[in-house]
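Support case: zinc ion complex. Customer-provided input:
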Amino acid sequence: MTQLTENLKAKNAEYASSFVKGHLALPPAKKYLILTCMDARIDPAAAFGIDLGDAHIIRNAGASAKDALRSIVISQQLLATREIILIKHTGCGMLTFENKDAYSVVDNNLGGQASKELKDLKLDFLPFPDLEAAVGDDIDYLKRSSLVPEDVPVSGWVYEVETGKVRRVV
Ligand SMILES: [Zn+2]
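Agent response - structure generated as follows:
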């Protein structure tokens, strides 16, 4: 056990000792999904008022719609969510590099075999240079996709890690 897993175990024991929500259904009660970034400064439940069991929260680096498509289809088609709220954020790490930089870092840190694997996968890290434009691009991507039904409301937002405020972009 590392210090972090020790902490996890202790905090979970505390949490489970007063846990009373084991009866919740699998499909989210409020039938919506939030796609946001994995950034450690975002607390979706607290910042966006999500109670346990209410919504799917899909997270990845940059709140990428493309990267999240698999989960979005599962959420909507298998678990009946009917609205998509996409929230990127200020200060996102995805604004700070380009694909070639990530490829170079992997090559330096992990060496040739890892570098080759990355190239074989043609992995796109999906960085973006402009936050608001990226929100618009991802919303367009979702609206263009035939995997997202036309009657599903889709909105794009920016969360400010400096203020805790969220604002709508599209
Ligand atoms: Zn981010």
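The longest strand covers residues 32-37.

Case will auto-close in a few days if no follow-up is received.
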